[in-house]
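Ticket reopened. Same input as before:
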Amino acid sequence: MSDIHFEGVTKVFSRGGRPFTAIDGIDFHVADKQFISVVGPSGCGKTTLMRMVAGLDHPTAGSVAVAGREVTGPGPERAVVFQQFALFPWKTVYDNITFGMRSKGASRAERDEAVAYYLKLMKMEGTEDSYPHQLSGGMQQRVAIARSYAIDPGVLLMDEPFGALDAQTRTIMQEELVRLARVNPRTVLFITHSVEEAVYLADRVIVMGRNPGRIREVIDVAQTRDAEAWADHPIDDVMEMPSFTHLRGQVWRLLREEMGSDR
Amino acid sequence: MVATTESSSAGRRRLRLPRQLLIGLATVVVMLAIWYMLTTSLGVIDPNRFPSPGQFFAALEQMMTTGYAGGNLIDHLLRSLVLVVSGFLVAVAVGVPLGFVMGYDKRAEAFFNPIFLLLRPIPPLAWIPLAIVWLGITDASKMLVIFVSAFVPSVINTFTGVRNVNRTLVEAAQVHGATRGRLIREVYVPDALPLIFTGLRLSLQAAWTTLVAAELVGAFLGLGRVLSTAYRDINTAMILLAMVVIAIAGALTTQALGIVERRLIKWRTGP
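Engineering reply: fixed in the latest deploy. New output:
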């Protein structure tokens, strides 16, 4: 059981000496193994929200609890996939994927097995001894995702993981992530700028507003998705289905309202 | 960034290398010819001001056989090399850990930085008189001065490298359960390594500079001693020889450091 509980979470930064409320009193519950996408205009505090779950930032007021325990610092049960991949350039693909496993004391055999499993899953066989700079952006991000999955975290946090990839690679990665999430379901908090990506991947989409950062609305996708059997269609077809475009339009309208809110 | 562009640019470089080498060799030959013409066949330059190639090689022969200024080439070179390398190694052994601690821990920085700010503006050569008063004209006094000069670049560059560590990589290690020990060994050290080596190269250069100055002031053996003796004898050939030997020895030690660096930072070019 790895659910996330936000209770009155508020984050105030000091911006040029003046206090700036990045997040204002968020109450929310993410159920175990639920995939949540978070969209919102820049400056709405979505990354801050994720960092507080990761334990890399701390709320000014309120609390974040994962699996019933309050988050006080970073830990391997809440792995993060970063936008800029954040692979260790001095480590091979093998050592990057198994970095977290070693923290948990995995044996050599277990590590070999995990690397073989993920490289096969991601069609990257034979790259064990490559260094990150020898890989394309899409491959680097696959390795970063494998690094996080490999420690079997209760919660997986992704901060615009496909933001630095080109459009085609991005589509492939979205499909792969859905595939991965199906064989290996996790509680996921997925931050993104892309409305399509948010709707395609998530069980629920959180739309955030800014000034101050807060939850504007939560849109359920899972029901429609399962009813329309998106999983049986390739991603391009899904994105043209009326059920998908309807949800996308709904998220878009909310987002546009929020973006115009400070004009 | 992508594998294909890396390998193709490396391929182009490999193709260009022989031609570069040829041009380099041609430059050397032309320089030697001009040197010979000016000093020997045309006689434009007075040998008391600058030696001819013949005088230079005669000096080299004398240095290899009977010796000059109290020893032969090997005696002088070895003495200087031992001083430079040992002074450098001690400076690095103290400077790198100190810079690391200062970069990692703000309290350590607060403690050491004032001492550092006071000592740093003093030119290393200004320590020579004090070193001689304390330790006499000995190897120990020279090592002290070399240590002082080589110490500063090691500390500063290691400090900067650790202080500017890639925060995202630190966070990536933390969220994947790294302990403090692993964080230091597997993130801080490798991330700071390129800058640490920059510091080491500067330290090595400083060590050679300081050595020559210290030996000029007073020494019984060593390349600086050759220089000071030859200057009193107005032996320009011997002066030039000592200068060339110092240049080659400095270049070779820098090369050796470069080999160590490439071994340790192999991820930059890949296996």
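The interface with chain B takes residues 54-56, 73-76, 78-80, 82, 84, 86-91, 99-100, 102-104, 129-131, 133-137, 147-148, 151, 157 of chain A (CB under 8 Å). The radius of gyration of chain A is 18 Å. Please confirm and we'll close it.
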